[in-house]
Amino acid sequence: MKTYADASSAVATGDTVETTIGTLTLSAKARRIVGVWCHAVAGAGLTTLENMTGIFRLSSGDLDISPAKYPLDCVGALTSGAFALNPRIFPVNIPVKGGEQIECFVTMDMAITIANKARWGLIYEGD
Question: Which residues pair with 91 in a beta bridge?
Answer without folding.
Answer: 35
